[in-house]
Amino acid sequence: MSVSGLMRDVRDFLKDLSRDLPDVFPRRPVYRRVARRARLPRPSAADRERARGIISARAAHWAALLDAKYNRIAIKGQRSLWGSCSRKGNLNFNWRLAAAPPETLDYVVVHELCHLREMNHSSRFWAHVAAACPDYKTHRRWLRDNTAALMAVSALA
Questions:
Q1: How large is the average pLDDT for residues 38-44?
Q2: How many domains, the chain?
Q3: Which pLDDT tens digit goes with each residue over 44-81?
Q4: Quick check: is 138 in a domain?
Q5: Using an 8 Å Cβ cutoff, are 110 and 55 in contact?
Q6: The whole model's pTM is what?
Q7: How far apart, in whole angstroms, are the C-alpha atoms of residue 74 and residue 69?
């Protein structure tokens, strides 16, 4: 008997057994393929510029306090990132952060500015973040809990 024939026999045996003993072999849920991700709303040019103004002002404020120097700021519409920092010192922020509470926006700005000192998420990095934003864990949790609401934002109020 071939290996594939043996595997087929084992599969058939287990199917029959699962029908005879439903308590021992509970039915597995059927996973349906999820439809393609919906497109995120796109901001108007005015909303993007308002977000740039708000985020740039907070970045300048915190950069002065942290004695950090960044190269440039880009405002983007990422699906899964609130911000990022490149090795060249460029900061990228999601435009939807302008709709978040100011303290949460400040946390993300501080987080990215701290990457200018530590390009990782080591304990030293988190010590820098905690020194500038002692309640950063509250803001991280707020972002995690409200990501869907922020991603649905189509315009700044």
A1: 73
A2: 1
A3: 888 899 999 999 999 999 999 999 999 999 999 888 89
A4: yes
A5: no
A6: 0.74
A7: 15
CA dist 113 and 86 (Å) reads: 11
pLDDT in tens, 105-131: 999 999 999 999 999 999 999 999 999
Tokens 């490149």 locate to 86
Own/partner contacts of 74-82, CB < 8 Å, gap of 24 or more, are 75/48, 75/51, 77/40, 77/42, 77/43, 79/37, 79/40, 79/151, 82/108, 82/143
Would you call 104 exposed, middle or buried from its count of C-beta atoms within 10 A (0-12, 13-18, 19+)? Answer: buried
> What pLDDT score does 37 carry?
60
Residue 123 maps to a domain: yes
For residue 102, give the CATH number of its domain: 3.30.2010.10
